[in-house]
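Internal tracking record. Fields below are filled automatically when a chain is submitted to the structure queue. Please do not edit lines marked as system-generated. If the sequence contains nonstandard residues, flag them in the REMARKS field before resubmitting.
Queue: standard
Priority: normal
Entity type: single polypeptide chain
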Amino acid sequence: MPEGEGFGLRSVPLPMNEPAGFGWIGNPQLVVRVPSVAAVDLPVFAPPLRHYTALAGGTNVNVVEVLSPGVAKIRSWERGVEGETLCCGTGSAVAAAWLAQTEGIHRWTLHTASGEPVSVELDPGVEGAWRDLWLSGPVRRLGVVRPDPSLLLRLRG
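SYSTEM-GENERATED OUTPUT FOLLOWS
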């Protein structure tokens, strides 16, 4: 995953009642730790956070429930989709980076809404930066998109 200047954990830009982290990994990710991801009504909980005024352009919202050291459940509400997705790779990466910082564990298995695990391993670095952040999990091709040839002509011209 991307690293270096500009990427990493940052201060949470909004008031939160629950423990939360925030990071930039090419897109903004808010991570909120909750007692149970299943108990969160994500369509009600996420939109006010996703559209919070201090976050120009909004943010993805991820809720995490720690099951045991290095193991958690995650659900994600993605901007652009404006709904819950089965798995948000960048959200999982930032969630694991924040959990690594708060829990001191550098390898996490996150059980996604799809039920499939995503593994994240990283060196949490200093001051919110991460290094060697690796994300792995199952991949499936869901379809093939073939753009209309007229679109390609417009791009070349």
